[in-house]
Fold:
Amino acid sequence: MASLRARVRAIERGGAEEGRGTRFPLGHAALDGHLDGGLPAGRVHELVGETRSELRDGSVFGFAAALLTRLLASPAACRGGEILWCARDANMFGGTPYGWGLKVLGLDPERVLFVRARDEADRLWAMEEGLRCGGLAAVVAELGPARPGEAGRVAERRLQLAAEASGVTGFLLRPLAGTVTTGAAESRWRISAAPSGGSLEPSWSVSLERLRGGRSGAWQLLWDACGGRFRDAEEFVPVPEEVPETRPAAGRSAAA
Structure:
């Protein structure tokens, strides 16, 4: 049965050699070791945030930008390739992606193409078309909760097949509320904000809930935007401020 499944997967990938393909490292030794060298490129990965409404989730948004920064710096990305980002419309709670914010995170906004679509169906269509374009480095789509049942599995399977055929990496950004896993994505991550320990860099609690052929795991990561890599949040040790020495006034004791 295992051999038969492998042959079916090879046929679905257009006869491509069976395997996990190229990986891009995240710059964190323990995490890269857990992922056998890095996150598989040319696959679709699902990032689930912590919001439960239509708010744009800052945690999952920032984590996605960090992953894209690592991808663009690796040989796994098409040289000079750009990122196609299918964003949700702004509302009274969540605005649109901001170029300077991406730049602070280390992601060059000039390499990001934003798509405005009428609804989620159009964003899925734009994402699938983007994943079929081998000149892109990655495609991102901001979606709602995963659709349960066969319809959701078919939609994500189409995205996965498009990514495997072209080598373009896809990221699905979803809210927490009502999210179900269809099992079609290569990996599924749960992202939430975490204390940064005094650092100005963003810090996340990251849970790898599912990885095809791999193991789950959890880490608390800090994003080093200047170095372009993930670090353990515990690595940051704030330097204590020097307290000026106080001396008693002349003619008076310290106790006074």
Summary: The helical segments are 2-12, 29-34, 58-72, 99-104, 120-131, 149-166. Confidence is low (pLDDT under 50) at residues 13-20, 237-241, 247-256. The chain has six helices and eleven strands. Residues 149-166 form the longest helix (18 residues).
